[in-house]
């Protein structure tokens, strides 16, 4: 009787074990499915200096394959360092066999487009240019005058402006005969406000039969002037001395080039400059610059 009861009890126990065992297996499968590692990343391509985040559905560790390109924090924050690629490995803390990798691409940060500058550079004088008005002059250095120089200031934008040569310094550097072509060349140095340049003048022999102006005598007859009145060549009386020693009063001035400069405004003095071009017996165009100073009554 007891054996029958034991058998029944054992049968009941085994039944319970089978029933309970059948109930536990499905629950284990559900639990395992819930803890499977899943990884997501919102941006897999980022600029250098920018960040993105790698997310895991379980507690995990993060590691970068190339920290020079992209670093990653313990919370999965990835920061781009420089252009290149890096793999971020995510490992489950609960099950280290569960790993996932995400490839992150880092690209060079775009630079802001350069805006074209509209600001003009500050205008500055960078040099001077000088040449003598006549290509050839009579063979006499003393006939070469400062006022016969065309002087220009050169600026950093390429522009030029004429300068009154009276403010420049002119001195001879050398005078020599060129052996190659037999020319007689005089080289001058021109200085103005710390800038220097050189110019060359060809000196030619003048036949004694060619008469040319050598001196000028000028007087002013225009009365008192002020800043509103310009000095006119018609108010200047001219007497010219020529190379043969004769003098002539100039009546017709329309063919004479004349330039008027303030020379020393403090003492109210003008300088008159006259250019003459003439031909020698060989047909050469010759040039000479003669000048004289005249006192002009001036009223401020």
Structural summary, described in words:
The protein is mainly beta and 300 residues long. It contains one helix and 21 strands. The protein has one helix at residues 2-34, and strands spanning 39-41, 45-47, 51-56, 60-64, 70-72, 77-80, 84-92, 99-107, 125-132, 136-138, 149-155, 160-163, 169-177, 184-192, 195-204, 213-220, 236-242, 247-250, 257-264, 269-279, 285-295. The protein has a four-stranded antiparallel sheet with strand order 1-3-6-5, with no helix packed on it. It has a four-stranded mixed sheet with strand order 2-8-7-4, with no helix packed on it. Strands 10-15-14-13 form a four-stranded mixed sheet, with no helix packed on it. It starts with a helix and ends in a 5-residue tail after the last strand. The model is unreliable at 22-33 (pLDDT under 50).
